[in-house]
Design brief:
Blueprint lengths: L5 E4 L5 E5 L8 H15 L2 H10 L17 E6 L7 E3 L2 E3 L1 H13 L2 E6 L2 H10 L4 E4 L3 H10 L3 E3 L10 E5 L3 H14 L3 H11 L14 H8 L6 H12 L19 H6 L8 H21 L4 H14 L1 H13 L7 H7 L8 H4 L9 H20 L3
Parallel strand pairs: 3-6, 3-7
Antiparallel strand pairs: 1-2, 2-6, 4-5, 7-9, 8-9
Helix pairs in contact: 1-6, 8-9, 8-11, 9-16, 11-12, 12-13, 12-16, 13-14
């Protein structure tokens, strides 16, 4: 995220953060027209119900007047779900990124108070804050409206429809601005990327957890001095952390071990998470040693190991032979990667080096996807 973020300790259980933006505020006239257009597409029955609950008469064509002239919004937030957390000392979180984007859109400073829901609602009712993040879903939201008649809600701010921003009826123009901005934001690719980072199953992680099998991944990856987060990325793309999965080729378990591989590395029950992970990591150790013997440098090794894990050691070694025959560096992944597509329908020159075909598109995708997930795990999860 861009912007300067400053954390300030307020009390023993309340923290405050501020950041500054530099974008123009959307004028009231433009806001009213954009709201009218966007709400045609995005307004739903829920919002109509909420509006009726609030007994508000909002004319969409009216020009909302900005009441927060101080250029600063005070927001109550918490550390639930993916709202806000510290990653290696750096503030992160889905809601934090949303507020950063909103601050740029509205050209306002935002000051955060980290407080529980009960305190947030009381602060809203008293007018102590401008906005509050509510992440408990709509069933719980109804009870909030029953207890606090002067509170209104934004449209949902995530695709799972769990979180909304709440404000006082006195700040209805602020909620209208949020809805305009949210409708525009959700049509942008950058929003989908950000949302996936926190809510897509691949990224559904917390600062200290990736899967139910983290303790096993840490235990056995330590035996081979391998980052457990890399193994977690492999497991995700092999089985989505489902120990009972069997592929069409007969690979089974969390790390999708073939029967002959399981036997080679002493795995008696491929559906037992610990046995499967232990066997998979032994395979990774074996492949790492093999490519090191062939002269692959350590910084390149991970790509070769992942490719061989997916396609088999023999196929990748064949690709290395072809790379050498074509005058490329067989120990450089980018060179071998460029050879893999040629293996599907090899010409005479390639066929003279290796006698078999190899459709390596799946393997190329596997390597790229595992590396991508691994990098995300590195960023969000402590090693």
């Amino acid at each position: 995220m861009n912007g300067n973020l400053k954390l300030i300790k307020l009390t023993s259980n309340v923290e405050k953060a501020t950041f500054r933006s530099s974008h123009k505020y959307l004028t009231g006239f433009d806001a009213a027209n954009k709201y009218y257009i966007s709400m045609k597409k995005t307004v739903n029955l829920l919002i109509l119900i909420l509006i009726s609950l609030f007994n508000m008469s909002v004319k969409l064509a009216d020009t909302p007047q900005k009441s927060y002239k101080s250029k600063k919004l005070i927001v109550a937030m918490d550390t639930k779900y993916h709202n806000y957390f510290l990653q290696k000392g750096t503030p992160c979180g889905y809601q934090l990124e949303l507020f950063h984007l909103f601050s740029k859109y509205e050209d306002v400073d935002i000051e955060f108070c980290m407080v529980p829901d009960s305190v947030k609602l009381s602060m809203l009712s008293r007018g102590d804050i401008d906005l509050a993040v509510f992440s408990e879903g709509f069933d719980s939201l109804y009870s909030v409206f029953n207890r606090h008649k002067n509170i209104c809600s934004s449209v949902p701010l995530d695709d799972s429809v769990k979180s909304v921003w709440l404000s006082s009826e006195k700040n209805i123009d602020l909620i209208l601005s949020v809805n305009i901005w949210a409708s525009k934001l959700k049509g942008e690719n950058s929003y989908q990327i950000m949302h996936n980072k926190y809510f897509n199953r691949r990224y559904d992680i917390s600062p200290d957890k990736i899967s139910p099998y983290d303790y096993l991944l840490k235990k056995y990856s330590a035996d081979i001095a391998c980052d457990w987060r890399l193994i977690a990325a492999i497991v995700y793309h092999e089985s989505k952390f489902r120990p009972g999965v069997v592929s069409r080729h007969g690979a089974a378990g969390l790390m999708q071990l073939m029967p002959q591989t399981a036997r080679k590395f002493g795995v008696g029950n491929v559906y037992n998470p610990e046995e499967n992970i232990r066997g998979g990591i032994k395979l990774i150790a074996y492949l790492t040693a093999r490519f090191r013997e062939m002269g692959v440098p350590d910084e390149e090794s991970v790509y070769f190991v992942l490719a061989a894990y997916n396609a088999g050691q023999g196929r990748i070694e064949n690709c290395m032979k072809v790379a050498l025959a074509l005058g490329l560096n067989p120990n450089k992944w980018s060179d071998v990667y460029s050879v893999i597509p040629l293996m599907k329908n090899p010409d005479a020159e390639i066929a003279s080096v290796v006698g078999s075909k190899f459709n390596g598109k799946e393997t190329m995708n596997f390597v790229n996807n595992v590396i991508k997930s691994y990098k995300h795990y590195q960023h969000f999860v402590e090693g």
